[in-house]
């Protein structure tokens, strides 16, 4: 085929329409892993069907989690905990570790006296968790209400932490403004002196477990062309109207 000037112009215009030049005020625009390729990666590692799902979202999560552990996912317990303050509705998120899963919810541990999450959940009991397992192209979203674990429950996990982490839980005033690191080191020094020679350290009153009790859990499997497989478990209202009914499962459009 003979390439004419008009054909070249049309070709260039087509490319410009598909990939418009980046504006000067955009620091990042449509990033991709390969800087020479403006198209995002395609998800090709799996599919998810209704028949593969367990009736319980907790059992289903456990199945996916153990699969992630066995298939090279880096720290699959890493999760984004999101909370919102009222009345502003301002949302904040942070990466934490999932430490427990039982038949009622997902448990993380943290400071609940000075931290922002503590202030948020004091006035707003709703929170969400988001897991992202890149190696499997899977995501799990959890939405629900939160409750504090008792000191007795928290002590069980607290005893598994290394000595330095237990001392640190006593020392840190999480999210409090400090002049420099020497302030933190001073707090740690005082806590170390307090518990010097003690193997068993009691869990601080301001520290402990937070259980997210889900009313919705979504399992997401990446697919090609962004046509992902999504299934949402939703808890129906029980006889008391408090969301203690049976779980239903719905496929969601991507």
UniProtKB/TrEMBL annotation:
Keyword Flavoprotein belongs to the record: yes
Pfam hit, one: PNPOx_N
PROSITE patterns in the cross-refs: PYRIDOX_OXIDASE
Residues annotated as domain Pyridoxamine 5'-phosphate oxidase N-terminal: 66-186
Domain of life: Eukaryota
GO biological process: pyridoxine biosynthetic process
SUPFAM superfamilies given in the database record: FMN-binding split barrel
Gene Ontology terms, MF aspect: FMN binding; pyridoxamine phosphate oxidase activity
Sequence ranges assigned to domain Pyridoxine 5'-phosphate oxidase dimerisation C-terminal in this UniProt record: 207-254
Annotated segments matching region Disordered: 235-254
Cofactor: FMN
Pathway(s) this gene product operates in, as recorded in its UniProt entry: Cofactor metabolism; pyridoxal 5'-phosphate salvage; pyridoxal 5'-phosphate from pyridoxamine 5'-phosphate: step 1/1; Cofactor metabolism; pyridoxal 5'-phosphate salvage; pyridoxal 5'-phosphate from pyridoxine 5'-phosphate: step 1/1
Keywords attached to this entry: Flavoprotein, FMN, Oxidoreductase
Gene3D superfamilies with a match to the protein in the record: Electron Transport, Fmn-binding Protein, Chain A
EC number: 1.4.3.5
HAMAP family: PdxH (MF_01629)
Full protein name: pyridoxal 5'-phosphate synthase
Protein source organism: Lachnellula hyalina
């Amino acid at each position: 085929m003979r390439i004419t000037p008009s054909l070249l112009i049309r070709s260039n215009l087509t490319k410009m329409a598909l990939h418009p030049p980046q504006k000067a005020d955009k620091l990042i625009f449509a990033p991709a892993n390969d800087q020479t390729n403006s198209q995002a990666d395609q998800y090709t590692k799996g599919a998810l069907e209704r028949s593969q799902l367990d009736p319980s979202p907790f059992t289903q999560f456990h199945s996916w989690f153990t699969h992630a552990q066995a298939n090279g996912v880096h720290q699959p317990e890493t999760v984004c905990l999101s909370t919102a303050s009222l009345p502003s509705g301002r949302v904040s998120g942070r990466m934490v570790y999932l430490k427990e899963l039982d038949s009622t919810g997902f448990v993380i541990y943290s400071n609940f006296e000075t931290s922002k999450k503590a202030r948020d959940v004091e006035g707003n009991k709703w929170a969400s968790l988001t897991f992202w397992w890149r190696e499997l192209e899977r995501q799990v979203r959890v939405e629900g209400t939160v409750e504090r674990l008792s000191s007795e429950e928290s002590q069980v996990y607290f005893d598994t932490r290394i000595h330095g982490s237990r001392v640190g839980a006593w020392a840190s005033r999480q999210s409090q403004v400090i002049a420099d690191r020497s302030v933190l080191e001073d707090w740690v020094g005082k806590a170390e002196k307090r518990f010097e020679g003690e193997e068993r350290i009691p869990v601080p009153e301001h520290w402990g477990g937070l259980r997210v009790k889900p009313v919705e859990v979504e399992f997401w499997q990446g697919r090609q062309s962004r046509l992902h497989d999504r299934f949402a478990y939703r808890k129906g209202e029980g006889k008391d109207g408090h969301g203690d009914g049976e779980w239903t499962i719905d496929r969601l459009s991507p």
